[in-house]
């Protein structure tokens, strides 16, 4: 709890709710989830996410013992290996794939957050809690509409995490237990909104 008595996890969810709606309602996401695109469109998204998760997990490794960010470090969340498997199945060669402008900005923001772990937590929260939440719906739709199988959707399966809801509740408890002052909470929420906006910008470029 902070001085105002609202839990950090509540503040984060409230601060990002409009940005979340915007991301969720972007034309690319709506088209992808309604079945009007194709498996290649998902491949293009997954290819860009490769750069995002590579940065997220490289910075996460350097902050594994950090008093603020270290509490969120969890091997079971690591997505780069599963994403690489999926990309191979989808026929996307990341070596020859250029990161889009939005991806480059996103990666730069993640790398810069290494200097301010609370901002790194914002990036961690935005992606991983999203993958554990709406990501599950996304995987379901991709499977249904584009006949993608397990070998293309392993990114959405978290081996070792059986109960996603329980995991997310514990994650929010860890956010609430952070011993950070109001200015840090402010940096956390501002950076999380930015992280959502990078995702929306990426969807915009993929349209
Ligand atoms: C693609 C369409 C999307 C759908 C259908 C969707 C759906 C949802 C749903 C239903 C929840 C609530 C789950 C719960 O209460 O446990 C949720 C939470 C969340 N989503 Fe999304 N989402 C989408 C896109 C995104 C994107 C693009 C991001 C960010 C990259 C994102 C990040 C999050 C986060 C961080 C939460 C957790 C909020 C919290 O409880 O603090 N979502 N999403």
From TrEMBL:
A Pfam family matched in the record: Heme_oxygenase
UniProt binding sites for heme b: 13, 20, 125, 172
A GO molecular-function annotation: metal ion binding
Keyword set, alphabetical order: Heme, Iron, Metal-binding
GO biological process, one term: response to oxidative stress
Matching InterPro entries: Haem_Oase, Haem_Oase-like, Haem_Oase-like_multi-hlx
Domain of life: Bacteria
Record has Metal-binding as a keyword: yes
Keyword Signal recorded: no
Listed name of the protein: Biliverdin-producing heme oxygenase
Organism, scientific name: Gordonia asplenii
